[in-house]
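Consider the following assembly input.
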Amino acid sequence: MSGSLSIVGLGPGSEAQVTPEATQVLMEATDIVGYGSYIDRLTPQRFVVLHRSGNGVELERAREALNLAVDGKKVALVTSGDPGVFAMAAAVFEAVDAQPKAWASVEIRILPGITALLAAAARVGAPIGNDFCAINLSDNLKPWALIEKRLRLAVEADFVIACYNPRSRARPDGFARVLTLLRQHTESKRIIAFARAVSTQHEQIKAILLEDCRPEMADMQTLVLIGNSATRMIEQNGKRWVYTPRLVGLRKSQ
Amino acid sequence: MSGSLSIVGLGPGSEAQVTPEATQVLMEATDIVGYGSYIDRLTPQRFVVLHRSGNGVELERAREALNLAVDGKKVALVTSGDPGVFAMAAAVFEAVDAQPKAWASVEIRILPGITALLAAAARVGAPIGNDFCAINLSDNLKPWALIEKRLRLAVEADFVIACYNPRSRARPDGFARVLTLLRQHTESKRIIAFARAVSTQHEQIKAILLEDCRPEMADMQTLVLIGNSATRMIEQNGKRWVYTPRLVGLRKSQ
């Protein structure tokens, strides 16, 4: 009899942000599959088998998890944040789609988690109080031209923009190009927030104006939030908060 | 001495998706403020004071919560989903921004929650496996023309699109106009998912083609997900899954 595969979101880092259903599934799993540093976040149960994999081998990891499930295991495939947002859920369905018969009997379930966008927004204030978009700045899986096109259209739509994976050692220049594009298409006082390693002991939050941004302010652990044209920065109780008003345009036109 | 205000996301409905930190804050609160139906979801502690408010009075509710906090209470302001996504966090900062001295000493904290987009995506499969946006279809706080402009640009950017608040008794026609716009700007086989009352006993999930969509398939409790041009529908283990591949264009061009 086939087993099951639960694709589990662990949230941004803190145990206090892991949902009870995720904790439950991890306790009941016979096998846990994941990128090494996500496995390291767990306090494993006594008899569980841990399967660590390297970064950047998502399809291989998805197949490994599906194969364990088809062998009757109760598998938890762990990801940071939410499994549906630039993480493992899509990789699992890509694998299933390519070999529909191989894993036809596996019971698949996805458990949502607090994605970096929500965790970062909560620390920054209320930056996504209006319509927003999320763009993965990694060009490993799509052409850079598409990223720039989406950014330009997102600015034109006046979305608040969340940038995932803004910069890495393998991709040092992309985020500099994003800042150049923003300087061409928005005003220099546009508000930008950098939220790094949110909810961990290495957390760093910074909210500044576009004119003061430098590419090296972002790294692989940073979520960058670009305000829309109405986003504001206020001081309260010794803190700097960023928020985007819910109301747009109606005051003037009505 | 001033108290504190925690703006707490309760997730989409199930207790199993409420974060431990949210549960902790609710246990320690002296006062809980919220829309009646969110208050009804709680199992209140013995001495807590509940402050129910009507729907659609967000600024008033924000001021009430801030006033209780400035009086020294430990206040939890509860919202469904995530407080930053079309919910109470922005309303609180709008209130603070309008009267900066009134609540200068209140300690404000935001606790993220599983927003409807993540909960719905998890039930549907992996629809937001690529870049996405979220648009609130309510025109209470912005002109309808801006909603249509954002939808058109989102389709042009080939974002997966999440529509919050697609339809209500007060706004019966907006979602019909969205379907008309989609029929003009995308193909008739575009995949659309309707996720209603996710994680509750009234949950309903439906994934169909644009050509089969009718406006009345959405209501106030529905999150509508519009696939991008590459979103696929597959059958596996008796279920219909929707996913959006991570890879775009590179196979052909490289």
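The CA atoms of residues 130 and 246 of chain A lie 5 Å apart. Ask yourself how this observation constrains the way the partners meet.
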